[in-house]
Amino acid sequence: MEYYTFSANDGTTLAFQSSTPLTPSPSPVNDSIVLFLHGFSGSSAYFARNFPALSERSWVLGLDTRGHGRSSHSKGGYHVARLASDLRDFLLHIYSLNPGKKYKITAVGQSIGAAILWTYTELFGDAEFTSFVFVDQAPLQDRDLRFEWDEKKAHRGCYDEESMLAAQAAWVERPEETYVALVDECLGYRYQPSSQDRDRSPEERQQDEEYFTSISRVCDGRWLARLLADHTRYDHREACELITKPTLVMAGRRSGCFSLEGMREVVERVKNGRGVNMESKAQMSVFESGHWLFWEEPERFNQEILEWVRRWE
């Protein structure tokens, strides 16, 4: 994987990783693209354990969203809709590298990456994509008791004004502590240890912590805090009903972020939306790990992505 950059429509420089060299022009192994969108305070480096296996048969791309990773940290743009607009600019850039070429794109959105894809669909439709994979994200983080969206479906720790303000303060005032808390929340073996986790060495635990905290540390806490407010309140339930392409939801049974019930809502919304015959094209896969299931169970994750891509090519 190599890093490249492009400019969003407001001039912000955004970075991405590509498994195919882009100079003088990309020559992927076929017309299949697997596009990764990472989670909050992350980067495309999240998927280091997934890129090699998937790039054997597809052109793999990983975008560092605005304010994350190697992308520019603009003063504004702390909205999911802005990140969706950046994704549109990214797709236009990819197509500009090989004018006239058509690709079959499987978009894999993890956490806020899924929210970006739902917002993209709401704003621009889903015609550019062949299929979707949404990884461990419910369509609404806040509780909404008017519409039967309570603690069983909302985010476990950031779900109303009070908890959101507390989370904002943590990212701004206690960043180092918050980076570690994020790891504790997102790795299933730390959030909800099982008997099998006793075999994990202290070295492995420390390496995982250092890896993910180093990624979060690149971000600006105040900017993240403003993005968090937008992300937490954003209701994507109706947007999920606009999806017309095959949809796979991957959920972590030991996720510190969402319950299986909350994530199952995505599948049900897609099935009951406007797509044709979506009953057989929307499904859910449950992993025994946490929010970062792509890291904890990479072999299974990679295999299921490969099978999903083949199924809808």
Question: What's the structural blueprint in terms of helices and strands?
Answer:
Blueprint: E1 2-7, E2 13-18, E3 32-37, H1 51-54, E4 59-64, H2 80-97, E5 104-110, H3 112-124, E6 131-135, H4 161-173, H5 175-186, H6 188-191, H7 202-216, H8 221-233, H9 237-240, E7 247-252, H10 260-271, E8 282-287, H11 293-296, H12 298-312
Parallel strand pairs: 3-4, 3-5, 5-6, 6-7, 7-8
Antiparallel strand pairs: 1-2, 2-4
Pfam family, one: Abhydrolase_1
Domain AB hydrolase-1: 33-298
InterPro entries: AB_hydrolase_1, AB_hydrolase_fold, AB_hydrolase_sf
Task: Give structural attributes.
single chain, 313 residues, alpha/beta, eight-stranded mixed β-sheet, AB_hydrolase_1, AB hydrolase-1 domain-containing protein, AB_hydrolase_sf, AB_hydrolase_fold
Tell me about this structure.
There is one protein chain. The two termini are 23 Å apart. The model has no long low-confidence stretch (mean pLDDT 95). Strand 7 (247-252), helix 10 (260-271) and strand 8 form a beta-alpha-beta unit. The chain has 313 residues and is of the alpha/beta class. An 8-stranded mixed β-sheet has the order 1-2-4-3-5-6-7-8, sandwiched between helices. It has 12 helices and 8 strands. Helices cover 41% and strands 15% of the residues. It has helices at residues 51-54, 80-97, 112-124, 161-173, 175-186, 188-191, 202-216, 221-233, 237-240, 260-271, 293-296, 298-312; strands at 2-7, 13-18, 32-37, 59-64, 104-110, 131-135, 247-252, 282-287.
